[in-house]
Structure formats: structure tokens, C-alpha cells
């Protein structure tokens, strides 16, 4: 720990992390305010599960380096949008866009960036909707906007992303090309599955007295 470069220590200090923790709490309040009524309206839980994380010092240093930025606390705050991150996992794609619509109606939430990897998946096959919000938090009695990345995805997209993520961090395999090819196929099947599940739910809803 003593040999650790100072920036690692700074990125782990409460002084740096605190505002991101507050931002996560704040966005979770907004999310609950949006998803609870939506679930009631739909008559089912539209969020299967959710999680949050503050990016580790290691991961921040790796990302800054990969993007070609100097590794410092200042650059991390300025350039990285996902130091604070929340992931919402739903069963169906239409739930994702319903949540997005309601979040955008929230007055104090400022959408600073949106990346729709569901409409346009990444070459890897990655699918998710990324919304970067500026969330107002109070630090030392002052209001400060802090960026948080909200990742919205279906259970199927999440399943794929977890396997892909594990693979990327163990890329010493001889057969990496074949693995990526297989993952790409899984992504295509996942997309079909998401479409089919949504179609089927809508069909069931149309043909029954109650919504699912
Ligand atoms: P980790 O370990 O998940 O934190 P930006 O600067 O906002 O424009 P950014 O953040 O450089 O863009 O990249 P992008 O593409 O928006 O991706 C941000 C995050 O999405 C990643 O964070 C991953 O969590 C996830 N992601 C993006 N592409 C893939 C992919 O191909 N596979 C998987 N499994 N996840 C992906 P990190 O920091 O890379 O990683």
C-alpha cells in the first residue's frame, strides 16, 4: 500500500468518493419515484433488480489511461461520466423506454448524454441504454451537479454483458477470436429473444382480462 502512487490514494479518499455516493443515493430516489408508480400502473414489478457502484481507483486509472488523459483526480471528475453508476434491469425493452420517458420528465434531472446501444448495438454485441444525468447534490452547503451513469437493460442483455465482461478481463485465452464470435451470436439470439418475449407479453395482455 505504501508503494501505491498518490493518485490511487486520492481516488479512494472520502473527499473524492463522497459526492458520488450522494449522487447515487439521489438518483436512486428519482428512480424509485419513477418506477414505483410505473409498476403499479402495469400491475407487475417493472424492475427485476438494480445495483449501483462507485468505480474503483484501479478502473478509473485504467479508463483515463485508455482514453489518453493524464491520470489525476481532476481529470477523472472532468472526463469520466461513470464514476457513479446505477444499473436497472427489467424484463422487457418497453419498460426501459417507459422509465427513460419518466426520468426525462423530472425537472431537476439534467440529461447530459444518451447512448442507445439497444437501437444501435456495439460491434461486440453489447446492448443497453445509457443515460448520463447531472444530479444536484449538496456538499458543504453548496449545490453541486454530479454526473451519474444510469444503465438500463433487460435480464437477457444483462446476462450477456456479465459473460462478456468476465471474458474481457480474462483475455489471455488462445481462442479469444472464437469466443468473441460465439458471444456475438449469443447477442443476436438475445436480441431476438427480447423481441419475442415482448411480443408474447403483448399478445397475452391483448387476450386476457388483466395485464401481466
Ligand atoms: P466497468 O468495469 O463496467 O465500469 P463516454 O465517455 O461516457 O462517452 P465510455 O464510458 O468511455 O463513454 O464508454 P461506454 O461505451 O459508454 O461504456 C461505458 C460502460 O458500459 C462500460 O464501463 C461498461 O460497463 C459498459 N459497456 C460498454 N461496452 C461494453 C461491452 O462491449 N461489453 C460489456 N460487458 N460492457 C460494456 P467500463 O468502464 O468499460 O467498465
From TrEMBL:
Q: Which Gene3D superfamilies match?
A: Beta Polymerase, domain 2, Nucleotidyltransferase
Q: Which GO terms describe its biological process?
A: guanosine tetraphosphate biosynthetic process
Cited InterPro entries: GTP_Pyrophosphokinase, NT_sf, RelA_SpoT
Which stretches make up the RelA/SpoT domain? Answer: 52-175
Pathway stated in the Swiss-Prot or TrEMBL entry: Purine metabolism; ppGpp biosynthesis; ppGpp from GTP: step 1/2
Its keywords, alphabetically, are: Kinase, Transferase
Q: Which residues form the signal peptide?
A: none
Query: What are the protein's GO molecular function terms?
Result: kinase activity
Q: Which PANTHER family match?
A: GTP PYROPHOSPHOKINASE YJBM, GTP PYROPHOSPHOKINASE YWAC
**Name of protein:** Putative GTP pyrophosphokinase
Q: Identify the species of origin.
A: Lactonifactor longoviformis DSM 17459
Amino acid at each position: 500500500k505504501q508503494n501505491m502512487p498518490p493518485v490511487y490514494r486520492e481516488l479512494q479518499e472520502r473527499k473524492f468518493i463522497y459526492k458520488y455516493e450522494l449522487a447515487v443515493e439521489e438518483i436512486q430516489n428519482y428512480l424509485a419515484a419513477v418506477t414505483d408508480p410505473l409498476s403499479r400502473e402495469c400491475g407487475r414489478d417493472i424492475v427485476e433488480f438494480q445495483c449501483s457502484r462507485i468505480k474503483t481507483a484501479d478502473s478509473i486509472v485504467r479508463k483515463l489511461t485508455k482514453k489518453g488523459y493524464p491520470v489525476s483526480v481532476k481529470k477523472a471528475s472532468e472526463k469520466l461520466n461513470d464514476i457513479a453508476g446505477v444499473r436497472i434491469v427489467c424484463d422487457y425493452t418497453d419498460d426501459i423506454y417507459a422509465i427513460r420517458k419518466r426520468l426525462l420528465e423530472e425537472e431537476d434531472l439534467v440529461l447530459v448524454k444518451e447512448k442507445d446501444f439497444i437501437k444501435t448495438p456495439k460491434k461486440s454485441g453489447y446492448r443497453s441504454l445509457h443515460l448520463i444525468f447531472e444530479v444536484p447534490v449538496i456538499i458543504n452547503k453548496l449545490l453541486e451537479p454530479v454526473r451519474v451513469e444510469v444503465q438500463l437493460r433487460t435480464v437477457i442483455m444483462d446476462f450477456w454483458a456479465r459473460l462478456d465482461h468476465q471474458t474481457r478481463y480474462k483475455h489471455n485465452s488462445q481462442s479469444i477470436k472464437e469466443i468473441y464470435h460465439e458471444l456475438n451470436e449469443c447477442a443476436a439470439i438475445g436480441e431476438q429473444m427480447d423481441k419475442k418475449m415482448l411480443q408474447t407479453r403483448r399478445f397475452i395482455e391483448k387476450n386476457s382480462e388483466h395485464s401481466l
